[in-house]
Amino acid sequence: MNPSVSPSSSVEHRISLRDVHFSYRVGFELTVKDAVFDFLRIRRARATREIHALRGITLEVEPGTRLGLIGRNGAGKSTLLRVIAGIYPPQAGEVHVSGHPACLFSTGGGFDNDSTGWENIVTRSLLLGASPAQIEARTPWIAEFSELGEFLDLPVRTYSSGMRTRLAFAISTAYETDLLLIDEVMGAGDEGFRAKAKRRFLELTEQASTLVFCSHGLNVVADVCERTVWVKDGKVRLDGPSEQVIRAYRAWCKGEAPVAPAEEDESWGESAVE
User: Fold this and answer.
1) Tens digits of per-residue pLDDT, 130-146?
2) Which of 18, 22, 84, 253 is the most exposed place for a label (fewest CB within 10 A)?
């Protein structure tokens, strides 16, 4: 099957993935042993490793769904979000996304470090698909929410990671969207900002936007998402109501109970989610 990524407004589901695979290669750092072999002119091929991040992911998300993604580091959650966003094209499988996704994946990504906060508000808003009129109307809200004050006059390279988090979150959540993808952002920043970000996140869910939220904060996922997918080793391990999936994941993390993969337990599969 040839890989396919297509935004579409005619499909029944907001997000549809069919047998999606994604992999990439990484090289190993030069070690002291490698350096010795090089010095002795004993040539060795540099080792590379292929990371199969997604292994046949099939997933359907209907409009209005609040979907959580959980799993340990390296499970494939963030890669899955970026495939949905169209940032990573799959090597195999089909991806169909209805609507224009607004993405909040990292605290510092996407900023022009030499531009001011004000200038980055404009450029990032344009990348989100906002019109000049919308940007002008929402800029005061972004400035107020970020609480950066006079720092907006300074280049972003002078910002701390927490300040970048505030600005990135404010911009990405300033505009109405039919699809919002968030990767762990509410775990960043100080306690006051996390509470503020959570309130804004809940406001977006009440507007019936489709949300896909990747996080290690299981309590937050349970609060804002009615459905959760547990990703393990690049595969959908479980898919179902958040309370049940999170309970099973916590038990597995503690080694309390083995859980069958989703494809072997229909009660956790797509048929369990209406």
Assistant:
1) 899 999 999 999 999 99
2) 253
- pLDDT range class, residue 25, cuts 50, 70, 90: confident
Per-residue pLDDT averaged across 101-114, rounded? 76
**Does pTM top 0.85 for this prediction?**
no
Which residues are CB-contacts of 140 (< 8 A; sequence separation ≥ 6)?
Answer: none
Q: Is residue 239 part of a domain?
A: yes
Q: Which residues of 16-38 are buried (b: 16+ CB within 10 A; e: fewer)?
A: bbbebbbeeeeeeeeeeeeeeee
| Cα 52–Cα 54–Cα 58 angle in degrees, nearest 5 | 150
Taking Cα atoms as reference points, which of 49, 4, 58 lies closest to residue 24?
A: 49
> Per the domain annotation, does 183 fall within a domain?
yes
CATH number at residue 81: 3.40.50.300
Considering the domain boundaries, does residue 263 fall inside one? yes
Question: How many domains does the chain contain in total?
Answer: 1
